[in-house]
Amino acid sequence: MSSNYELSTQSRDSFGTGASRRQRRENLVPAVVYGAGKDNESVMLDHDQVMHSLEKEAFHSAIIDLKTDKGSQQVILREVQMHPHRQLVMHLDFQRVRASEKLHMKVPLHFEGSDVAPGVKTDGGILSHPITELDITCLPRDLPEFIAVDVSELNLNESLHLSNIKMPEGVELTATAFPEGEDPTIATISPPKVVEEEVVEEAADQEAGVDAKSADAEDAGDA
Question: Alpha-carbon distance 43 to 99, whole Å?
Fold first, then answer.
């Protein structure tokens, strides 16, 4: 169970609102580590290191090597609490993982090949993806950074559905991800909006022309 991310921590032995404010002034983020049948552990992390990590999409669905006073621990990020008005991390929750226990995670979708899809390249369509992540379960060793979705063969007005997605080996959708029997749209290529706008404008111009002719006819009648 390898990790591409490593975070260093220091123990946290003071608590409460005042202590939290002081820690944040010192550029530290309070966090808790829990799970795997062990006691909860309160730690602090460097705020700049945390912010830099959070900017990376893969960090949110990765196994993290967390260095604490009790040694190196394999964890996943479970919750991030942000300040409502500032770019400030208020608190983090990390869950320990066991190699033999399946994880339940949200993993992002990466849509590949949109630049060569006929519906985009030839017909000028617009790719949209109403679903951007999936709830999955897998062992830690099988946890993917993302799930690739190939849209390179999509034509205009065509769609890919959940049933079209090939899940990586060892990865399964959670039973509650979508209602049983549903096959939601993952990606679709729609006509460009500019064409729709031109049609609306043309219809408006035609209507204006009809109104103008009617007005001219009325004026001629009055004369």
Answer: 23
Choice between 150 and 69, residue whose per-residue pLDDT is larger: 150
- The whole-number pLDDT of residue 214 equals 54
pTM of the model: 0.76
The whole-number average pLDDT for the span 184-203 is 74
With 50 as the cut, is the pLDDT of residue 107 above it? yes
When the candidates are 1.10.630.10, 2.40.240.10, 3.40.718.10, 3.40.50.2300, the CATH number that belongs to 5-96 is: 2.40.240.10
- DSSP characters over the chain: ---SEEEEEEE----SHHHHHHHHHTTEEEEEEEETTEEEEEEEEEHHHHHHHHTSGGGGGS-EEEEETTEEEEEEEEEEEE-SSSS-EEEEEEEE--TTS-EEEEEEEEEE-TTT-HHHHTT--EEE-S--EEEEEE-GGG--S-EEEE-TTPPTT-EEEGGG--PPTT-EE-TTSS-TT---EEEEEE--HHHHHHHHHHHHHHHHHHHHHHHHHHHHHH-
Q: Which residues pair with 64 in a beta bridge?
A: 5, 75
Sequence ranges of the domains in the chain:
5-96, 103-191, 193-223
CATH code at 103-191: 2.170.120.20
